[in-house]
Structure formats: C-alpha cells, structure tokens
Amino acid sequence: MLITDFGIAKARSQPGITQDGTVLGTVQYIAPEQARGEISDAQSDIYALGICLYEMITGLQPFRGDNPVEVALKHVRDELPPMTRHGEPVDPRVEQIVTRATAKEKSDRYATADQLVEALSAMLAAPGAEPISEDSERTRVLKAVRKPKRSPKPKPTPQPPVAVAPVAPEQAGSQGSPLVAWSVLAVLVIIVALLGYAAVKVVPPLVRKAQSSAKPAPVAPKLVKLPVTNVKDFDPQGSDGSESPDLTGDAIDVDLKTAWHTDTYNTESFGNLKDGVGVYFDLGSQVQVDRVRIVSLESGWDISIKGSNDAPDDIAKWTELASRKDVADKFNVGLTRAKYRYVLLWITSLAPNPSGDRYRVDISEVLFYGKKL
Fold first, then answer.
1. 98, 126: one domain
2. What is the CATH number of the domain that holds 305?
3. Structure pTM?
4. C-alpha span between 342 and 339 (Å, rounded)
5. DSSP 8-state assignment for residue 195
6. 201 is in which domain, residue-wise?
7. Which of 94, 130, 260, 356 shows its CA 20 to 30 Å from the CA of 312?
8. 128: nearest Cα among 223, 219, 199
9. What DSSP line would sit under 67-126, residue for residue?
10. How far is CA 299 from the centre of its chain?
C-alpha cells in the first residue's frame, strides 16, 4: 500500500473517505482541474510538484486564504505570485520552470515528469552559472542529476507540450507498476528541486576546475527592487487636473490595507469624460525597469504602462511599454529593458467598486524590479 498524501490519508476501514460530487485533495497543492471536479492525471501531479518547488524556494505557499474554498479558487484563476527569496527575485530560469509546471491549462505544463527533470538538470548544468552569494549560506559544488540515457545523442531541444489522456477511474486500481514508476520520478524531481533550493545557480565540477586557473567571467547584475522617491497622480484630461493626490503615498507604503484610488465614475469608461487617469512613480534617476508588480483591490480593469524621462503633462508624449486587459487583483508585467526615470500606470478602463454600484480602481502596492544604470 502506498500513501501519497498525508493530508487526506485514512485507514481503509474508516467510512466516508470519498463521496460522489466532491473534490478530494490537499487544497494548498490542488491542480485547477481537480478544483473544478475534473479527472486528474499525471500532469495534475506535475502541478502539485511545481507548487512544492515554489514553496521550497520562497518559503511560502503561493496561494493562501481564509478557507479552503478561497484557496482552491485562487489555484483556478489567480496568477502565480513572483518568486522571491529573502526579498530578492530568484534566477529567472528557475521561475520559468516553476511557472510552466504550474500552468493553469494542462496543455501548457510539462507533458511528463521526465521533461520537468530535464529542464531542471539543464538549468543546473548551464555554463556560466555561479553559486548564490549569501553570508548565511556556504556555497557547495554539486553535480546535476540527469536522466539516464540508453545511448549518446545530442542534447534534446524543447518539445511542445503533449496532451496526456486522463486515466479512467476503473483503470486506476490496476496500474501498480506505473504508480511505482511515477513515484520514483516524483522523488527524482524533488531531489533536483532540493539542489535548486540549496543553490539556485550551481557551477558544474568541470567548469569549476577550468576556471580555477583562469580569470572569472563577469557576472551580469541581478534584478533588484528599485526604490521610489516620489508618486504623483495624473489626470491630464480632467476638469480639475487631479485624481486623489493626497493618497498617492499609499501605493508604496508596504501596507496592503491602504491604497491610492481613482475618483468614482458612473461607468467603467469614466462616464465618457476622458480616455483614462493614472499615477506615475519617480525612480530618482534613469534606471532599467524589467518588471512591475501591481496589487489592487479590484480585478477586471485595463491598464497601460508608460515610461518617460521628463514626466510630460500630455499623455501622448509618454512611451508605451506594455498593456494588460481584464487584470487580476495581483499581477506582474514584464518589460523589455525599459530605461526611464518615470513610470506611469495609465488606467484605461475601471472596475466595479466593491462597496457600491459605481466604478473605480484602488491600487494598494506597486513594486519595481530592474537594474541601476
């Protein structure tokens, strides 16, 4: 007998282990299709392993709530929060692997555990990687765990995800050997994840030996949290030219209970009075912004992110960097080496106000990540 989940395991003699029309699983690691009551398969386990990797690296579960239903709904509809370790972003390659493993749609995940293992192994063995540099941790050189191969062949190129047919309930009890094989693969993935947790970037032994007598290669600066020196509301098309100017500081005060908000309008399109409103952030000097993290109290609104080095009053003179529609209440926007001093959040469509029947947007926190120039 194999016990695969201590969150739901019970003695076989106990009644009420399952019930028709219900979903069985530990809600912190449940896949979206399981939460919707659909048949789960191997890719559901890949999703759960991805959530485990996220928790092992960041120290936090990605989705939390006041009750199991709230947590399950977040697995279904919320984006994975950005991965940070001790307040700093992790290696983007690690985040990319975890993000694919925890994709909402099964067709977007790794098709098999083998693919996930290969992705982790390739990341660990990538040339030019270096150990993490934290005073509290000692760097160790580890050999990447690789999948055994029958014969030498070129390094495989990434293949598009392959849909895996769900296992019918009547077949599940007759597949003892595949279950054992899947358990072994799961253990292998966790071992590789532990290596990634101990050192997100590892130097292979052969590379370290070659570098011992050579000059170390220059290391690209990692993404850091960029400080904000000032915040200002932006309402160039409004009659009074202002939009909650006394609350702009609430968007950077590291308090999710406070927020800067737009005025309240009769329609999501600002009562057809203007094209949009916003708030812009002064980063002190020209910097390279690679990612913006936005937390709001509403979902379902539209935004355009723009940049400038002189903060003009005319919206047409700002450079558009990215745009999103129907956003979630917490989301990230990746930028391509945007080098500006000022970043504007230009709201082009509002959301229903949670406390009434009119429309507005409340932004409780904005974080910027990138590099100083």
1. yes
2. 2.60.120.260
3. 0.46
4. 9
5. H
6. 27-211
7. 260
8. 219
9. SHHHHHHHHHHPPPPPPEETTEE--HHHHHHHHHHT-SSGGGS-SSHHHHHHHHHHHHT-
10. 17
**Number of residues in the chain:** 373
Amino acid found at 213: S
- 61 vs 14: CA distance, rounded Å: 30
* Backbone φ, ψ for residue 53 (5° rounding): -60, -45
Q: Among residues 177, 211, 245, which one ends one of the domains?
A: 211
Residue 327, both tokens: 């956003």
- Taking only the tens place, the pLDDT of each residue in 112-131 is 989 999 888 888 887 555 44
Torsion angle defined by CA atoms of residues 308, 313, 318 and 324, in that order, rounded to the nearest 10 degrees: 110
* Token pair for 251: 């968007």
- Alpha carbon distance 182, 44 (integer Å): 12
Query: b/e per residue, 188-220, with b = 16+ CB within 10 A?
Result: bbeebbebbbbbbbbbbeebeeeeeeeeeeeee
Measured CA distances, 261 to 108, 189, 258, 343 (Å): 35, 44, 10, 17
| Residues 25, 29, 34: CA angle, nearest 5 degrees | 50
Distances from the Cα of 10 to the Cαs of 3, 14, 28, 252, 328, in angstroms?
Answer: 9, 7, 19, 47, 37
One domain, residues 271 and 326 = yes
Q: How many domains does the chain have?
A: 2
Q: How far is Cα 86 from Cα 344, in angstroms, rounded to an integer?
A: 28
SS3 (DSSP) at 167: coil
- Alpha-carbon span 162 to 185, nearest angstrom: 18
Confidence band for 84, pLDDT divided at 50, 70 and 90: confident
Residues of the chain by 3-state class (helix, strand, coil), percent to 5: 30, 20, 50
**pLDDT per position as a tens digit, 149-191:** 554 555 555 554 444 334 343 443 334 444 444 554 555 556 5
- Helix (H) or strand (E) holding 170, with range, is helix 169-172
Amino acid at position 69, single letter: V
